[in-house]
Write a sequence for this structure.
């Protein structure tokens, strides 16, 4: 049954997990993600699930690793420093190809940093933050409803590709209360479970491990994972185009700033500036395809980020330097207003025009 | 008749069986297995009492004992 | 004539990859025999560590999961919470459980997690080539304590099972040795009891086993057993260090 409720962003993620059939949650409290474990502690056990507050983030991710080996749906949630602690476990989970959902409510860093919203964990999220060569599928919601929808989607993607999936949100999204429609979940497709480890009754024993001291096998494994990642890159790029069709200038921004940028686009249009927005939904795979239709006519791109400029590197690769790419950014927990972003865009346009005239 | 049979492919020539055998009938032979270890062997099966101490201490589960 | 000793069904046919004379193999055999005798091979999921025992998954006949260094008990917790009716055990070296993974060891005990952990104490890091372990004895030379372990700068050897025994959720903690046939039998009894504690849902069970590392100790396998008796036994208290009343009644 569909119902519209008012919940905090972190609680929405918790509710989406329950409705996705998440059976086990292992976590460790850290602001600004804590409401996820609090919400699930109050609501998952009555649905037959398990919530365990681990000794630390390392414990939590490795408990997820163990539980995921049994084929159950599992999730953990944390914020930046806690996600750093989980990196070893994520690398192992990717290597053993375990489906799990990991929520990062990005706070600002580096170090202990602050509690405000940031996108400073972009590199860590999309480049494989731990050791070795692996990728997480990374989804970036920008509002309450997407926290709900993408979390549900994350569980399916994790099962479909046998890969950890990260829902990358931030302190602003996590802490804001917004109405959300708790849609009934479509039936989950049947996923292959012939790999799970749950006791070898009536079958051959199974092993889930990533230890290989034979270089030839090591390379074969890496090639196998590489092929999987390429397949994901081919079919799972997702993005939202907003007034991009006729745009002369494009904003590229995800999450909270992606949402702010929509207002910037609307304000720009009122002023006659043909501005559009590409809002990446999958940060990995990065939506390279989103840029293809615009390469010929767009004069400039501005990435709007809450970091020192991280996604801008992927945007530059996506447009193969055919279009100038600029950065507008705030840091340390600060958010830009839609006006500040537009001021920057207009300044960039004026500068481009001067350069062309010169 | 009790006997101790070394499964050659498992033996690593560690000599723990030689040391523990109360009848001193286990010895390292001059035969090597596929890994190149000189394998242990029972040199006088007639004296074997089937106590299985050799198998008990063998860290490679390389000895079967019959009684 | 009947076979009085043969390879347990709890082990696969894969030869152990340990060095000659290393008693890891003896401990694994005992676990596998207990799994067979309790008829739980098909019910059990083992968790292997990093280090010499990192290939455990190939040796046992039950399902296995390979964990990151020190994380076996956290992984075991995840498996057990997902499958409460399955038997879960971790097999870990002293470095794994008493250094890099200590936080998990302390907290599986505190939670009374219904898993069984086997700790192998050989006073050294074997796989990495003979470095100092948390269990390295005072004055013992290793490649990272080349002049001997000096407690002033390197700390004291830790009798880890005693630490765990002091935690309420630990239902059964035993410290045993595999240096002699008699002690090997005691080790097997302790392992059997530890698994029975788990089956009865009584809490966390730990069996710490004094073991040899002939290669990194620089001794023959036979001399290693004597070295263990002479040097490790005086430091590491043997016996059933902790047994709750319920366990005593098993």
């Amino acid at each position: 049954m569909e119902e519209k409720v008012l919940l905090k962003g972190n609680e929405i993620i918790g509710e989406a997990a329950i409705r996705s059939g998440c059976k086990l949650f292992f976590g460790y409290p850290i602001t600004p993600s804590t409401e996820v474990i609090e919400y699930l502690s109050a609501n998952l056990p009555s649905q037959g699930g398990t919530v365990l507050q681990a000794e630390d983030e390392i414990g939590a991710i490795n408990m997820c690793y163990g539980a995921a080996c049994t084929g159950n749906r599992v999730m953990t949630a944390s914020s930046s420093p806690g996600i750093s602690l989980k990196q070893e476990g994520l690398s192992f989970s990717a290597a053993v190809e375990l489906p799990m959902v990991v929520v990062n409510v990005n706070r600002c860093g580096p170090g202990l940093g602050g509690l405000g919203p940031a996108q400073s964990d972009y590199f860590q999220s999309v480049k494989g933050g731990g050791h070795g060569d692996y990728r997480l599928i990374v989804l970036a919601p920008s509002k309450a409803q997407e926290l709900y929808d993408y979390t549900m989607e994350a569980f399916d993607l994790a099962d479909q590709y046998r890969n950890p999936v990260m829902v990358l949100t931030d302190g602003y999204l996590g802490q804001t209360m917004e109405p959300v429609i708790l849609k009934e979940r479509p039936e989950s497709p049947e996923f292959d479970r012939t790999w799970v480890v749950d006791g070898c009754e009536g079958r051959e024993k199974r092993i889930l491990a990533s230890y290989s001291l034979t270089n030839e096998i090591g390379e074969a494994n890496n090639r196998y994972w590489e092929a999987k990642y390429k397949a994901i890159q081919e079919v799972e790029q997702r993005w939202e185009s907003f007034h991009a069709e006729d745009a002369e200038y494009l904003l590229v921004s995800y999450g909270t700033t992606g949402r702010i940028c929509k207002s910037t686009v609307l304000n720009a249009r009122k002023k006659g500036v043909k501005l559009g927005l590409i809002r990446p939904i999958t940060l990995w795979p990065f939506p390279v395809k989103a840029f293809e239709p615009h390469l010929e006519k767009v004069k400039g791109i501005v990435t709007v980020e809450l970091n020192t400029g991280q996604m801008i590197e992927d945007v530059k690769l996506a447009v193969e330097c055919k279009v100038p790419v600029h950065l507008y950014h705030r840091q340390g927990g600060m958010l830009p207003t839609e006006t500040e972003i537009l001021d920057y865009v207009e300044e960039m346009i004026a500068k481009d025009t001067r350069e062309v005239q010169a | 008749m009790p006997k101790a049979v070394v499964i050659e492919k498992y033996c690593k020539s560690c000599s723990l069986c030689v040391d523990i055998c109360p009848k001193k009938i286990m010895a390292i032979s001059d035969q090597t297995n596929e890994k190149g270890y000189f394998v242990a062997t029972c040199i006088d099966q007639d004296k074997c009492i089937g106590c299985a101490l050799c198998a008990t201490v063998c860290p490679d589960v390389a000895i079967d004992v019959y009684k | 004539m009947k076979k009085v000793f043969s390879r347990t069904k709890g082990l696969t046919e894969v030869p152990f990859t340990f060095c000659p004379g290393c008693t890891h193999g003896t401990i694994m055999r005992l676990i596998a025999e207990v799994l067979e005798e309790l008829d739980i091979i098909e019910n059990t999921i083992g968790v292997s560590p990093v280090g010499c025992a990192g290939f455990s998954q190939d040796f046992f006949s039950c399902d296995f999961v390979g964990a990151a260094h020190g994380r076996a008990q956290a992984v075991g917790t995840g498996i057990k919470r997902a499958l409460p009716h399955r038997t879960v055990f971790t097999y870990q070296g002293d470095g794994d459980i008493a250094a890099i993974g200590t936080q998990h060891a302390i907290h599986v005990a505190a939670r009374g997690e219904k898993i069984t952990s086997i700790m192998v104490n050989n006073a050294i890091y074997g796989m990495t080539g003979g470095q100092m372990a948390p269990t390295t004895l005072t004055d013992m030379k290793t490649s990272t304590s080349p002049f001997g372990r000096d407690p002033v700068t390197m700390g004291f050897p830790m009798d880890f099972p005693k630490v765990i025994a002091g935690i309420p959720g630990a239902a059964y903690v035993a410290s045993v040795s595999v240096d002699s046939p008699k002690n090997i039998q005691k080790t097997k009894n302790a392992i059997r009891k530890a698994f029975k504690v788990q089956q009865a849902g009584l809490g966390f069970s730990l069996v710490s086993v004094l073991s040899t590392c002939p290669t990194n100790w620089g001794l023959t396998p036979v001399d290693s057993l004597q070295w263990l008796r002479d040097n490790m036994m005086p430091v590491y208290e043997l016996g059933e260090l902790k047994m709750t009343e319920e366990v005593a009644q098993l």
Notes: Chains B and A do not touch (no CB pair under 8 Å). The first strand of chain B starts at residue 3 and ends at 6.
